[in-house]
Amino acid sequence: MGLIPAVWTLNCDTWARTHEFSANDYLNIPSSLFTCAYDENSVTRSLFECHNRGISRAKPHELPMEYSAKFCTGSLVAQFLNRLERISYHCKSNEHWVEFSDGVESRLVGANRRITQHGRLLLENDDVFIPALWQSKPEIIAYSNDGYIRRTWMLPEDWPNVDSVVVCDVTSDGLTNERSVVVDTNQLELSLKPNQTVSVSISNH
Prior knowledge:
Radius of gyration: 18 Å
Strand order of the largest sheet: 3-4-5-6-7-8-9-14-11-12-13-10
Low-confidence stretches: none
Mean pLDDT: 83
Shape: globular
Number of helices: 3
CATH superfamily of the domain at 130-205: Golgi alpha-mannosidase II
Largest sheet: 12 strands, antiparallel
Order of helices and strands: EHEHHEEEEEEEEEEEE
Helix content: 10-25%
Strand content: 35-45%
């Protein structure tokens, strides 16, 4: 196999063998050598996070919201998983899961998707609480499609013990509405509106 760093689509329904690229292929070819934007197999698409479709231009006034939703539930998750080694794939009835390095597990039960790290929840369906690993300081991006009230998230183990964090809204105008939110025993309680994205960081870090 030659080096093919990325392709747009895998497992197209027009292929003679529509599920030709399997979960084992994802394991055998590391993400550092190969990845894709969209996998039409719903199982491997969810487990390995390959559904980064383009942005619609039909309604320009909705572009910021659509971009944020697709980035947080697609590109952000893919960037996190693609930095890890893919270790093993398992399937039992309607339950599928992949084990990654650094204690990360991606699990699909029916249509419900979860990503955890050492048991700490990072993603549940379209509720996201994932580190922004490209940043020079510790930061987490939190997003919710439907919104929620007073949901508790665990901060990463490698974050220092803090009494509070800085939370900012992520908008098309940048980071806005900065506020301090109390942390209790490494747990952060957040409330998000539908389609809201926030940045969580350590103050004065």
